[in-house]
Amino acid sequence: MKALVFRHSLAREAISAIGGHVDRRAYVAPFAPVRLTEVAELPLPAPDWVRVDTLFSGLCGSDVKQILLNGSRDNPLTALVSFPHVLGHEVVGHRTDTGERVVLNPWLSCGPRGIDPPCPACAAGRYPWCRNFRSGDLPTSIHLGNCAAAVGAHAERFAAHPSQLFPIPSDVSDEAAVLADPVSVSLRSVLLAPPPGGSPVLVYGSGTLAYAAIALLRHLYPDTEVWAATRPGARAELATRLGAHAVLPSVPDELVDSVARRIGTVPLSPWSKRDWLQDGPAVVYDTIGSTETVETSLRLLATGGTLVVSGVEPPKRFEWTPLYFKELRVIGSNGFGIETVHGVAKHAMEHYFDFAAAGLDLTPVITHRFPLDRWQEAVLALKDSRRTGAVKVLLEPRLAMASGRGGRGRRGGRGRRGGRGGRGLLGVTGALGRDGRAVVPGQPGRRDFQAFRCGLGCGLAGVLGRLPGEVLLGQGFGGVPGQVLARGFGQRPDGRVAVGGDASPADREVPAAADPRRHVLAAGPRRVRLDRGAVDHDQLEGEAGHHDDAHDADRDRRWIGHLVPH
To answer: Mean pLDDT across the stretch 533-552?
Structure first.
């Protein structure tokens, strides 16, 4: 069966990480540690386990961060995973023994490991607190999706212990059901610090966990004023649609200023000019967990307030003086289990189904659906979410391969980039061959197409406008072949370059800039000079391996090239 497998390899991870700073596709390239492959079906870990046919699975932020190598080698949780493993834990499927529609509680706690009696945490329904993640019938692992002996959800089939599978009520759609896991995560966050009466609360983030927190707060605590700190545009509109009373900017200083104005307080301005408040929201639910969001939350929380952190980003230094001065509480929020809502104790996923039956609808967060075979596009849609608008992206093993390149939206249409050839660093069309060279559409041996390769780790920041001067790119380093820089370049007799394999060279000319900043790439007997200028998005598109606000503001400025002697 097909499965998305992550294999721990320092060499692959290094090449992918370095290449990712050149072209984001390096994170999902054939040399990356993750790939879709045919795997033999693993034996069941124990006789009482069952198999489930995957209908579709959701890409969790943790899946994407692992694929994009967004982490640190000193992360303590490396002690609780085993390799290789099939990724994925948000899923809707059909049990092969009963045909029943189910969702998955992914935690590999005492029950799935065959440990009886269970540890005190599992006996109390606190499965993420299990003390036996390294014992029993399974190798070291926290949940499905990071266990070498149990296939995760990004596969055509997976296996689970019956105690992990929850039947989906007939009145709950598949699309609503696949959100059971992230909604349960946010339910736990809200219950750890319920909003106090009479004070506003703030949800920080633009992803599924943030939108789930907004909707849950409005559903469970209708009298509480809920603010959302999120990106402008469609993200802000979605937050409002799900019940946020106010949408505030997510830029730290602007957010602090907005909170001060809404509260009616005067900010305190230290030497650093990073204003902070003594009055603000009573609780902040931080679904990002970066040093920036944690520090900003401490600056704007009300004295004696609570910060609940459910997101995880690599650690860095931040200013935490307000933590002690305002006597704030910081609570980590991890996973879910048996939760008590309005005096009723049952599993978080069962609570969610009750909420859905009562009218809670979070399906608007599902923005993209891709066949499992096109997992690379799904991952990159989330990485480039500022442009694609991706929030929750689904993978469907049995979805037929579409003719267009874009993933289907919620209404079955193509995504924003549907129907066009794939474009990378310099707006190109084609595919990579097994040897890493460019496969250019058109007739074999046609001389007006050339592929240029550059060595990984060779200062491509200069090509992307981050550094001035010239950057020479070789064929590789340390025996590692270079990465493809461009495909589908047609050389014109006048020395210009036509971009794209889906049009003739004459139709896709890229003019030279009037005042070039020169960057040089070694390309055999010739060299390419890249000049900065304005270019239409459909003509030429490319960016570094990360996306930021400054890039968004300048998104229409791209690099254009023409062949010149050098």
So the answer is: 28
